Amino acid sequence: MSDSRIGPERVREVVLHESPVDESGQAERPSLLAIGLTLLAAAVALFLVWQTVSSLLIVFAGVLFAAFLDAAARALAPVLPLSRIWRLTFVLMLLSALSGFGLVWGAGKLPEQTRLLLKVMDAQVDILQQHLLSYGVDLLGPEWGRDFAQWLFADQGRFLSHAQFLLGGASSLLTGVLVVVFLGILFAFDPTSYRESLVVLVRASYRARMRAVMDEIGTVMRLWFVGQLIRIILMTLCVWPALYLIGLPGPFLLGLQAGLSNFIPYLGPIVAAIPIALVAMPLGASLLIWAVAVYTIIQSIEGYVIGPLIQRRAVETPPAWTLVAIVLLGALFGVMGIALAMPLVAVARVAIIRFYVEDYLGDGHEPATEYRE
What we know:
Layout (H helix, E strand, L loop, with lengths): L7 H10 L14 H20 L1 H23 L8 H51 L13 H5 L3 H34 L1 H9 L7 H39 L5 H10 L6 H14 L4 H27 L7 H15 L1 H5 L1 H20 L13
Helix pairs in contact: 1-14, 3-4, 3-6, 3-8, 8-9, 8-11, 8-14, 9-10, 10-11
């Protein structure tokens, strides 16, 4: 009977003992030409990845959206005794209905709130700039104006350049969103065929291990995306009524941006506090203190209690490494790198532990002992 083991021991045997041997029984060393060609291929692959990294990040975002759709379809299995295709169709119809309702509802309410909040924040930033200038600190530079519109559209040439920039940015954003959505739908409806198209690239004796690791990565992505969605909804539903009760204008938009900020761990919640503080400043010091205190309390409970409970099964990476990844990927790839840093770290962690630590090094990945001086 053939050996049917799939674990790291069997994989290590395949990797280390199925190499060509010479007549004396010793493993043949690769020639200098083979080493050179391998290094050249690796360099070309890294160059191509670097040149197409923006597109690769969009593809990864599509895979994340597919993981969310798959998680929603799995959650409906006990409720809807239908095939997976029909459950996915129901999920897409439900998401389309919710998106349509949100657009119709937001078109009548959000623009006015947005203009009001931008006007208030513009006034407060201008006041802050004047206070800093009195101390000799020019925080925003000499070209800063008292109004965003004057700063952006001071002359016709600047107006046209900014209009082209905004139009190009909007079209790129819309194109990226559509690509992510359609990629997610395609991946979600037939995940097995897409997985097998990657599994077939490795040797036959390693394919079972490859499938197992890819399934584990899929589980991590599902748990991460669903966890992030729960955190965003909870944060929005907590901050929104809290700011409404203390009398802050535009509480829904402020609560929504506070919830969406949790998509970027550590840095996002800090940035989300700035609009809340700017809107509360003209209403008095007491309201400013209340707004900042309420947001800080809610964010602390979510960040230190609720968040870790939700994400502990998906992301086990130490916080410092996650923050390092956010900083590096943000510097290299911009907003997309920051937004996708955490799931990329989670996926990379699983791949490194399974393929490199366990399979190549043959290490059982025992937990490290406590550090002592």
